[in-house]
Amino acid sequence: MSHPLQDQVRTLPERPGVYRFLAEDGQVLYVGKARNLKSRVSSYFAKNLSSPRIALMVSKVASLMVTPTPSESEALLLENHLIKELAPKYNILFRDDKSYPYIRLTRETWPLIGLHRGSLSNNADYFGPYPNAYSVREAVHLLQKIFRLRTCEDSVFNNRTRPCLLHQIKRCSGPCVGRISQADYAEDVKAATMFLQGRHQEIMQRLTALMEQAADKLAFEQAAQFRDQIQALHHAQDTQIMDSHQAEDVDIIVAVEQGGSLCVNLAMVRGGRHLGDRALFPQAGNQLDQASLSEVLSAFIESHYAQHPPPGKVLVNVSVDEAVAETLAGMIGRPLPMDLPYYAQHKSWVELAINNAQLALTQRRRMQSLQGQRQASLLAALQQAGLPVEQLNRIECFDISHTQGEAAVASCVVWTHDEKEGGAMRRADYRRFNITDITPGDDYAAIHQAVYRRYKPNEKAVEGMRPDLVLIDGGKGQVAKAAEALAELGRSDIPLVGVAKGLGRKPGLESLIFTDDRAPLHLDSDDPGLHLVQEIRDEAHRFALTGHRGRRQKARFGSRLDDIAGIGPKRRKALMTCFGSVSAMKVASIDAIANVPGMSAELAQRVHEALQDS
Questions:
Q1: CA-to-CA dists, residue 432 to 411, 453, 482, angstroms
Q2: Which has the closest alpha carbon to 4: 26, 19, 22?
Q3: pLDDT of residue 250
Q4: What DSSP letter does each residue of 343-412 carry, written as one string?
Q5: How crowded is the C-beta side of 556, counted as CA atoms within 13 Å?
Q6: pLDDT band for position 240 (50/70/90)?
Q7: What DSSP element (H or E) covers 531?
Q8: Which tops the pLDDT comparison, 94 or 429?
Q9: Per-residue pLDDT reduced to its tens digit, 291-314
Q10: What average pLDDT does range 38-54 have in this prediction?
């Protein structure tokens, strides 16, 4: 029996594009890209499909949407965007949308080195990407020790009058106060660049030649500095046991299955140095069980290199779909080798990545088990106390942060649990509320406002997401106000519990407060249920405090500039970008302020006088 969509498929264009399969209710089931839309989509309606997962998906397809694109590479980018936006049930998804960190080396008179995330600009050189921020900081610390490049921002560098602590501990050459010539600093920058490119032997030869030249000129102190650099480089190479001794850029990507769970581990080698790895876990609901390791690996590689620059080579532990290699080659303009390891060094890298993936799966399973124990323990305790709670798959917690009533901010954090993923904080559902129109310092009114705004009917963030339990960081008064807000919204059916701090605010002495007259519930300090409450409460406190500090800082810094005639949002932003803080601006000269884009000598004089009087 033919599929109802086959007539539509016959009319599809023979050109690149993206297709979407939809269910009867309009839900997107699958998003894919094709070099030839007609040929690719037709293959889904063949008699024999290679994947049971795809066969199940096709049986549920009710409609089809296609978007032709000028090229296959553009189809890949559109596919990646739609998968992340729509999260189709039958696609293999990875939470890999965070930007990877780079080492940034600016192009200016006195270049700055440091960590960078986000888009890459033309005013700096970038080295990476690195798998995590720790790897970047470790590399920067090593470069500071060997080459002593500055890491301070321009707002600090331009206003130094004496060397900082980093210069005193020999981690910076002190260019801000003229402790090194521009030519010598440029030599250090050049050597650091060579190091990041993996040209270690060239650096050794160059530093040795400079040391000998300095010794011939009887500049023994300078020669000793070059000697120390050489020794530090030798030590760095000796401790880098994963060094391939070749300036190669390689990504090692492996897919591992363990106990029904899948993990993709990405390790990075840049300039021959192993920079560490990152474990990622596919998100695809119940359909993931039927996905092969090759499918998972191909999906990750396609998604990853649609967003991040590829290395010279990729090592894998299972074969990758040839169509993926062809698509990426068309997108980046060159072939990207994706091979199983052959050389001993490459085999050791792949084996290490596999072991790390297995370890990540084991740790994740243990964490899920622990969260499940905490969830079960808290549920049992609340039910024993008589609270009408049937499950605890979604818990939301509120907290308030302010400084003597100033810049009050409420936070709402979310903890969720499901059978596949276990329990974890769900950061995508977090919300902050700037508290307004209340008496400063009135925590009761603040909680009432936050809860009301969170659960009011037009709050899109909670549509269809009724929490099984709401926690309030506070005592009887805060709980009563939260219950009042829920009652006003007709949502008194949501279980509500307060978390009151114990004597001396000591962890483990908390008590759970109810909305009625029943006695507070005290759990043992080692009770897993209490540990879950503490974890969620502490996260709510952290999230509220971070928001409060940002609002307070913006209010304090912004108001001092906003009161100055002629300083609007654009000039304020330019000033803060240049100086970093009002404190740095306060000690700056009038000429330095006047040099900021958009500022005049008259405005600079006005800003300088206003800040001196504040």
A1: 5, 10, 16
A2: 22
A3: 87
A4: SHHHHHHHHHHHHHHHHHHHHHHHHHHHHHHHHHHHHHHHHHTT---S--SEEEEEEEEEETTEEEEEEE
A5: 13
A6: very low
A7: helix 528-562
A8: 429
A9: 678 888 888 888 888 778 888 888
A10: 75
Structure tokens at 247: 């300036």
User: Is-above-0.85 flag for pTM?
Assistant: no
Closest of 580, 581, 562 to residue 571, by C-alpha:
562
CA neighbor of 109 nearest in space, from 59, 182, 39, 176: 182
pLDDT at 232: 61
| Closest listed residue to residue 308, CA positions, set 103, 124, 102, 137 | 102
Length of the chain, in residues: 614
Summarised one tens digit per residue, pLDDT across range 446-490 is 999 999 999 887 645 444 578 999 999 988 889 999 999 999 988
The answer to whether the CB of 360 falls within 8 A of the CB of 279 is: yes
**Residue of 54 and 473 predicted with greater confidence:** 473
pLDDT greater at residue 158 or residue 503: 158
Which among 339, 286, 287, 278 is positioned nearest to 311, based on CA atoms? 339
Tokens at residue 128, please?
């990476």
Give pLDDT, residue 397: 94
Separation in Å, CA 188 to CA 105, 173, 193, 360, 524: 12, 10, 9, 39, 59
Tell me the backbone φ, ψ of residue 73, rounded to 5 degrees. Answer: -65, -40
CA dihedral sign, ordered 419, 420, 424, 428: negative
pLDDT in tens, 98-112: 567 888 888 888 888
Asked if residues 400 and 392 have their Cβ atoms less than 8 Å apart, the reply is: no
In DSSP terms, 115 is beta-bridged to 103
Alpha helices in 158-292 (DSSP H): 165-168, 182-196, 200-216, 220-239
Q: Give me the helix-helix angle, 601-613 and 528-562, nearest 10°.
A: 120
Task: State the chain's mean pLDDT as an integer.
Answer: 80
Matching residue, tokens 């363990």:
258
Instruction: Report residue 8: phi and psi, to 5°.
Output: -65, -40
Q: Which two tokens stand for residue 116?
A: 């960078």
168-214 pLDDT, tens digit per residue, is 888 888 888 888 888 888 888 888 888 777 676 676 677 677 677 77
SS3 category, 195 = helix
* 272 burial via Cβ count (<10 Å: 0-12, 13-18, 19+): buried
Q: Measured in whole angstroms, how far is the alpha carbon of residue 348 from the centre of its chain?
A: 29
Tokens 């050189």, located at residue: 125
**Largest pairwise CA distance in the chain:** 92
Q: Which of 260-274, 276-290, 511-525 has the lowest mean pLDDT?
A: 276-290
Do residues 470 and 496 make contact, with C-beta atoms less than 8 angstroms apart? yes
> According to the model, what pLDDT value does residue 143 have?
79
Under 8 Å between Cβ of 126 and 120: yes
* Dihedral sign of CA atoms 556, 557, 558, 564 in order: positive
Q: Are residues 297 and 253 in contact, defined by beta-carbon separation less than 8 angstroms? A: yes
**430 close to 412: Cβ distance less than 8 angstroms:** yes
Tokens of 592: 């330095």
301-306 long-range Cβ contacts below 8 angstroms, 24+ apart? 301/253, 301/328, 301/338, 302/76, 302/80, 302/327, 302/328, 303/80, 303/83, 303/94, 303/96, 304/94, 304/96, 304/253, 304/266, 305/331, 305/332, 305/336, 306/76, 306/77, 306/80, 306/331
Q: Give the span between the Cα atoms of 517 and 372, in whole angstroms.
A: 30
